[in-house]
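Posting for a labmate who doesn't have an account.
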Amino acid sequence: MEIINLGTADGLPPVDWAATVAKLEAGSTPGQDAINSRTTWLSTVNEDGSPHVTAVGALWVDGTFWFQTGAGTRKGRNVERDPRCSVAVSIHGADVVLAGDAVRVTEPGAVARIARAWADQGWPAEPDESGSGITAPFNAPAQGPPPWNVYRVEPRSAIVTLTAEPGGLARVRF
């Protein structure tokens, strides 16, 4: 991993990536009254090359973002055709954009572990009968019917913008 301080020209100190990861692991949000305080944004590539951006219920587990979606959704079709994507989120004191490739996860143990992580955060997800997808009594309507596919973002790079003093800007290459 390489951390590049993009704020040097402005005299900004290096970004502490470990502190950013700790906030992501803790599920940190900018604050209860902050705009989009709980929104994570997934960007995928449409068939014509244009961007598709949508809100998703993503988790930070094992050093990267995980998300789920139905196979027939636009984001599901997009990542199956072209896995390049980015995930953006605001946490307390920072904005984070992670770029990488969406990798579908079908291994039953991994799917069960991620379903438990979602359940621990209040969404009653569980593995489907095959063990390779998840199901729940409810989901966002745009996800389509269950079962839903689980994806891990294999990170290539991240941009971290510190939003609190003293500020900072960094690119992280994985």
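Reply:
Got it, the structure tokens are right above this. The chain has one domain: 2-173.
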